[in-house]
Amino acid sequence: MNLLLDTNIVLNVIRAKDFAGIVNFINPSNAQLYLSVVSEAELKSIALRNNWGVNRRALLDSFLEEVNIIEVNQLYVNIYA
């Protein structure tokens, strides 16, 4: 099974005190994780606007390196609609 994460899920994972525990909870089978490029942009914007510190930014960057980023194109928009 693959998991497509939304922005709010990733925000809660990054904000959690037990980062690894939360990741294991939402993904116990170590499935492939996916994130849309829109969510990636939202997360980076939130981090910038809220002046996230070095540690939280490092967690976000590390998380983003581990997920597969999905580009949004017209095909996906049509499927969604």
From TrEMBL:
This is PIN domain-containing protein. It comes from Mucilaginibacter gossypiicola.
